Amino acid sequence: MKYDLIIKNGRVILDDDVKEVEVAVKDGKIAAIGNDLGEAEKVIDAEGQIVSPGIVDAHVHITEPGEVTVMSGKVTKQV
Predict the structure, then answer these.
(1) Rounded to two decimals, what is the model's pTM?
(2) What does UniProt give as the signal peptide span (predicted)?
(3) What is the 3-state secondary structure (H, E, C) of 6-65?
């Protein structure tokens, strides 16, 4: 199978380990994780990087810019 994207050479966070394997994407979804997955339209070399497939970044902003926020007993205005 030819994938849309393969991410190679990164340290991939798995359920129970961290391994240097490839992550393949097809039609916007993770299609395979393993070694020597084949060809892709685009290849990203993630050497020295951490790859976290399927993990949602929980970083959120509680308020929108410009709203008044109460923090630590002080009222601040975000711009």
Answers:
(1) 0.69
(2) none
(3) EEECCEEECCCCEEECEEEEECCEEEEEECCCCCEEEEEECCCCEECCCCCCCCCCCCCC
Strands 40-45, 3-8: pairing is parallel
**Domain boundary assignment for the chain:** 1-55
Structure tokens at 13: 């966070």
pLDDT tens, position by position, 2-34: 999 999 999 999 989 999 999 999 999 999 999
Phi, psi of 22 (to 5 degrees): -95, 150
Residue 79: the pLDDT is 45
